[in-house]
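User: For a reading group we're discussing how well predicted structures match intuition. Take Nitrate/nitrite sensing protein domain-containing protein. Before you show the prediction, I'll give you the sequence so everyone sees exactly what went in.
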Amino acid sequence: METKIITCTILVIVTIINVHSKSNNLVKFDSVKQEIFLSLEKNKILHSTQKERGLSAFYLATNGSDLVHKALNQAYTETNTAISQLEIWPSFRQPVHFISKISYLETIVRFRYKVEQRITTLKEIINFYSNDNTILISWLGERISITTIGVIWKELAAYHMLMISKENIGIERALGTVHYMGGKITFT
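Assistant: Thanks. Here is the predicted 3D structure of Nitrate/nitrite sensing protein domain-containing protein, as structure tokens, for the group to look at:
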């Protein structure tokens, strides 16, 4: 009789330990799921600001073409939508315009005015969008380093590298557009 009680007690303890371990894994997986979702949402902002950068450079190179302006306005709408749909905003302290979605969007709107009025340079366009995109990509990288679950971590790290590559290609595309439009690329 005592053997049965001891066996049952051990079985209950082992089961409790297994349930506790599984619940911890479930919490980790939920956290990773949330990080992946936020990464995809941030990628929408990144993608739309990359398009906006390229079209802003193109708009400047065409001396304010109406056709390019129409495409640029569509890019503005996409960026605004992507920013407003992000559920959790990163908690940045620097630069100041990253403190909230509203301050970030206000900064973009002020810069758009300079593009629309063509009172900016190609260098300012590239730097403005690229600096902010670098911050978004670095935030993505920091969040990925938190999720250290096996294969998923490797895939998320690869995704981060893809975002860095995409950003660099976007800069090249914007500069290439200006160059092939016959514009001079000067950064002096």
